[in-house]
Amino acid sequence: MRNSGTNWLGKVTNDSLQRIYAISFPSQKELDEYIHFREEAEKRDHRIIGRQQNLFHHFEVSPGCAFFYPKGTHIYNKLTEMIKEQYRVRGFQEVLSPNIFNLKLWKQSGHYQNYKDNLFLFKSEDTGYGLKPMNCPAHCVMFEHGIHSYRDLPLRYADFGVLHRNEISGALCGLIRVRRFQQDDAHIFCTPDQIRQEVEDSLDFLQHIYGIFGFTYELQLSTRPENRLGSEAQ
């Protein structure tokens, strides 16, 4: 059994709750196998390894944000160098975008209306702003600036900037679910007839990187939750 904190309906303004997880097995043998599996998994828990090897730690002064020590920073930088090189050989151009945007942009993109609870919002000189949780709107702003010929496409942007998401405290977990992070966030601007090839190349890219670390993945059809971007036609 285990437990975790959450809020009613996932909203931080609602009452705090405790989730209780439990599992049962038809036989003692299956229970023993599960216990052994859990024990082996704990030996590889990145939170335990990070603490034991002094790679990173979390502190109350910045909840949900990791403090990387020298060895952890070295590993992080090596991974970043590797992935940046892989982006370059696949025709991506690295860009940098701001961390703070006027609320006008988040309202235009729909993030404010649908994901306001997950944004870090503040005011300065009576103007509303938000820390970016992803780079999509920023890259669209950059692409919109100037005139592009079809000969310029596909145009591939890669961004490794800092992102912030106001995750509820009960959902925070090591480096898997955090409030401040960096990701290899990329966007491709292309013509309709280029989409198939770009999707195939992206899946090949993913499989190559995952293969380096021995990861596997599965694909699932995305549903249409109540809070989503885009119209039915889109």
TrEMBL record:
Transmembrane segments: none annotated. This is threonine--tRNA ligase. One of its GO terms (molecular function) is metal ion binding. One of its GO terms (biological process) is threonyl-tRNA aminoacylation. GO terms for cellular component: mitochondrion. Residues 69-234 form the Aminoacyl-transfer RNA synthetases class-II family profile domain. The keyword NAD does not apply. Keywords: Aminoacyl-tRNA synthetase, ATP-binding, Ligase, Metal-binding, Nucleotide-binding, Protein biosynthesis, Zinc. Belongs to the class-II aminoacyl-tRNA synthetase family. Its EC number is 6.1.1.3. It comes from the Eukaryota. It is an enzyme of class 6 (ligase). It holds the Pfam family tRNA-synt_2b. It comes from Favella ehrenbergii. It catalyses: tRNA(Thr) + L-threonine + ATP = L-threonyl-tRNA(Thr) + AMP + diphosphate + H(+).
